[in-house]
Amino acid sequence: MLRFAANLTMMYQEHAFLDRFAAAARDGFTAVEYLFPYAFEATDIAARLNEHGLTQVLFNAPPGDWNAGERGLASLPGREDDFRRSLEHAFDYAQVLGNGLLHVMAGVVDTPSSSAIDEHEARARQRDVYVRNLDYAAQAARSLGLTMLIEPINTRDMPGYLLNRQDDAQAICDEIGAPNLKVQFDCYHCQVVEGDVATKLKRDIARIGHIQIAGVPERHEPDVGELHYPYLFALIDSLGYEGWIGCEYRPRAGTSAGLGWARPYLDKR
């Protein structure tokens, strides 16, 4: 049975953040995710979760200085100590909020010049840092019962991001070999970068720890665009996927008004 989590960063923006929990629960969601919780006290968020009977599924580790363009610390040379401190901060929140999944953003490639050779070398250098940091993160998270996630993200939405393809993410997980390191499979990002979403879901399902959805190309509700989600939902269900599906999309108008696609799947509470 498919289970859907509302992404409170993108959905319900007509409400203040802490009021989005109630709005999601009213619409029948039983779980939530979002990008970052750190602007709020973990205990305040936990109170909203408990009040509305919601499961916290996922959030991201601190990404560095977001306003300055940083999109994760895990691959940045010389920032290893910052990365480890960010993990500790995320772990503290996860222990209060109760989620079992934590997404670690890779970061943007620092290319000193525009030449292809320099970019290739920069990506290779940062990949090495990324693998070492992910190995550390998976080991540190294991005793807490946390699964660490890595997510290929398209460079149209996030220019210069290190990790873009599903096969690259799977190869990194293979290289590290940690049972609590998995891939966050975002159907939207996969379609933008490489397509062939259904085949990749079939190929990689054993190491997919979380799935996210959005319409392509506008990233609105999953009822318009290039991807036929009823088919993908049936496929995901047939593959025995037992995790949550995060609704990480920007509603075209009001969030609740755009949930017609979800009515057959949401709990009737």
TrEMBL record:
GO molecular function: hydroxypyruvate isomerase activity
The protein's name: Hydroxypyruvate isomerase
Organism this protein belongs to: Trinickia fusca
Annotated Xylose isomerase-like TIM barrel domain residues: 21-264
GO biological process, one term: glyoxylate metabolic process
Location of the active site: E151 (proton donor/acceptor), E248 (proton donor/acceptor)
Superkingdom, taxonomy of origin: Bacteria
UniProtKB keywords: Isomerase, Pyruvate
Keyword Chaperone among record annotations: no
Pfam families, alphabetized: AP_endonuc_2
Origin organism lineage: Bacteria, Pseudomonadati, Pseudomonadota, Betaproteobacteria, Burkholderiales
Family: Belongs to the hyi family.
